[in-house]
Specification:
The complex is a heterodimer. Chain A is 42% helix and 19% strand. Chain A is α+β, with helices and mostly antiparallel strands. In chain A, strands 1, 2, 3, 4, 5, 6, 7, 8, 9, 10 and 11 form an eleven-stranded mixed beta sheet that branches. The radius of gyration of chain B is 18 Å and the shape is globular. The chains are: A alpha+beta, B mainly alpha. Chains A and B meet through helix 2, helix 4, helix 5, helix 12 and helix 14 of A and helix 2, helix 3, helix 5, helix 6 and helix 7 of B.
Chain lengths: 388, 203
């Protein structure tokens, strides 16, 4: 440290002269000179400021947990989202040789006849060759190359199937089969196990709920299957050429003859769909419920559940605003935990972790939950509330 | 500012080199840290994490989760860019400078998120996230709240000089400003803090 300023210079500084850099360095580092110059008050402020440094760091952050996360990220920085998938066994679908694709992935081509874009979930080539079959659980957009005579390209979701007759279409599916198919260009034939086949043209969409409702309506009114298919298009509706998961598309799904279900009934339906793993259905039904009574007491939980469904489907922008707050997931998890609903708590925690997927917290959460080298205590903390 | 920062806690063996020291052992430690060696990363983390966490908290990162986020990202970024660290400043200062940048980025991101939350009607959550403090002592909490109201440049200067007690030369290098400017910021920050605390005490 440099020498103390002379008393005459200190007087000048007291009178408001600006210190030189050398003097300033000294004044910043020398307690005695600083106190001489500090005429604004006593030393209480300095004492308080130093007390901040002595704040126990346990009150500021969890040192061990953060260290574990740093080390885990250094070990496997690119696998953290796959780890989330491993934790959430409820969304892990059977596929022997499957390719796990992450959201916002650039176009990939596990299939030879098509480029696959925006795949979320599992895509696997089930049958290669001229008659190519791709198994899908999740969502993907297929841009099919020009098929030669004798070549086929099909997408299979459980027992349902979509066959390409054109060039570009989007498929949403879950564990039970197709949820929706939207054609952007060309034509595809949708052959659902539940309903009759339908040929979709450009900008047309097939929706399972609508198709099932149409089939039920047709049965109830004793019309012929042909008349029903003609009237409803077998569930096909014209849609604008935009991504297919807008909730309004399903708002038309109710059977025309039946009275519209109340909001709370829709919540019950949405919850049942969620519990059955039909996240796409849960999402649209819950969105409909929220839209019907946005101020209802149950709306907050419905939003959380719809958000969790959305996250589990990895469709981040399907319902804007529903999962905007990671804190809402966290709060929901705590409520569910208090209520003894461990499964719901898990879902909400997963929702929170996925919601903040771009943030370090997600990596920390995943690292804690899945890293076998962590201590039992840390793992227990991360897994608290999880159902195995 | 007058007292040097607490030394890192001694390791169980007592033989772990401090990365801020000179000598072969410290150089080897830094080299291993840059290579992402878990033992070296752990060693450097344990030597400096508390300081980084305090600085991040006092820079106004937010609640505990935010502090952990920024600390985590700071060390990861340090490992990634360690090959560029040529020892112009101390390792401690270098980590603090990374933490400073990361905190600024974090605050900007959080600010955007908060705006979005408010846009979607989640004011209550946005507010609770913003208000989160982790201080048991009421006076300390008041002081921290007053710190949060300071202009960013003043807050950074007073946190590093007065709270963490880093040498003026190091702070000057960290913040990229001459010592006289740092002194002025600290001086103004103290004035503002006294005014803010006095205003709060008035009935």
């Amino acid at each position: 440290m440099s020498a103390h300023p002379e008393s005459q210079r200190l007087t000048h500084l007291l009178e408001g002269a600006e210190p030189t850099d050398e003097e300033a360095e000294h004044l910043l580092d020398c307690a005695r000179c600083a106190s001489l110059l500090d005429t604004d008050g006593d030393a209480t402020l300095e004492t308080s400021l130093r007390a901040l440094r002595d704040t126990p760091t346990t009150m500021i952050y969890d040192r061990a947990r953060t260290e574990a996360a740093v080390l885990a990220q250094l070990r496997a920085p690119k696998r953290r989202f796959a780890r989330v998938a491993a934790v959430v066994s409820v969304v892990a679908m059977a596929a022997s040789v499957a390719l796990v694709l992450r959201p916002r992935q650039s176009p990939t081509s596990p299939a030879s006849h098509a480029t696959i874009e925006g795949a979320v979930g599992r895509v696997a080539v089930e049958q290669a060759g001229p008659d190519e079959v791709v198994a899908l659980t999740g969502q993907a957009t297929f841009r099919v190359t020009h098929l030669q005579p004798g070549q086929r390209f099909r997408v299979r979701a459980a027992r349902d199937e979509v066959e390409v007759r054109g060039t570009q279409f989007r498929v949403d599916s879950d564990a039970s089969g197709l949820v929706a198919v939207t054609v952007q260009e060309g034509r595809v034939e949708v052959r659902p196990a539940c309903c009759s086949a339908v040929l979709l043209g450009p900008s047309e969409r097939w929706d399972r709920e609508r198709a099932q409702a149409a089939a039920a309506s047709a049965a109830a009114s004793a019309t012929t299957p042909e008349a029903s298919a003609t009237a409803s298009g077998g569930g096909a509706v014209a849609v604008p050429p935009t991504p297919a998961t807008a909730p309004t598309a399903a708002a038309n799904a109710g059977a025309p003859a039946a009275p519209a279900p109340s909001g709370i009934e829709l919540v019950a339906q949405g919850t049942a769909a969620f519990d059955a793993g039909n996240y796409a259905t849960a999402q649209v039904v819950l969105a409909k419920a929220i839209a019907s009574e946005p101020a209802a007491a149950w709306a907050r939980d419905a939003r959380t559940l719809a958000g969790a469904a959305q996250v589990l489907m990895s469709a981040p922008d399907a319902i804007p605003g529903l999962s905007v707050s990671a804190e809402s997931f966290d709060a929901a998890a705590k409520r569910a935990q208090r209520g003894g609903d461990a499964r719901r708590a898990t879902m909400a925690r997963v929702g929170a972790a996925r919601h903040v997927s771009g943030r370090a917290a997600a990596a920390r959460w995943c690292a804690l939950a899945t890293d076998p080298s962590l201590s039992a205590a840390l793992r227990a903390e991360a897994e608290r509330g999880c159902v195995r | 500012m007058r007292d040097p920062p607490s030394p890192p806690p001694p390791s169980p063996s007592g033989a772990v080199p401090c990365a801020d020291e000179s000598g072969d052992a410290a150089r080897d430690l830094l080299r291993a840290f840059a290579a992402g060696d878990p033992t070296a990363v752990s060693t450097v983390y344990r030597q400096h994490a508390d300081l980084v966490a305090r600085v991040v908290a006092h820079f106004g990162a937010g609640g505990a989760a935010d502090v952990e986020d920024v600390v985590q990202v700071t060390f990861l970024e340090a490992v990634r860019s360690a090959s560029r660290f040529k020892g112009q400043t101390s390792l401690r200062g270098w980590l603090v400078s990374i933490a400073l940048n990361q905190t600024r980025m974090h605050r900007r991101r959080e600010g955007r998120l908060r705006k979005r939350m408010i846009l979607f009607g989640a004011e209550e959550q946005a507010q609770s996230a913003a208000d989160e403090v982790h201080m048991a002592d009421e006076d300390v909490a008041r002081l921290r709240a007053a710190l949060a109201k300071l202009p960013e440049l003043q807050r950074e200067a007073i946190v590093l000089c007065e709270i963490e007690g880093l040498p003026a030369k190091e702070v000057s290098a960290l913040l990229g400003a001459p010592a006289a400017t740092i002194w002025r910021r600290v001086h103004d920050a103290k004035k503002s803090l006294r005014r803010l605390l006095a205003t709060e005490e008035e009935p």
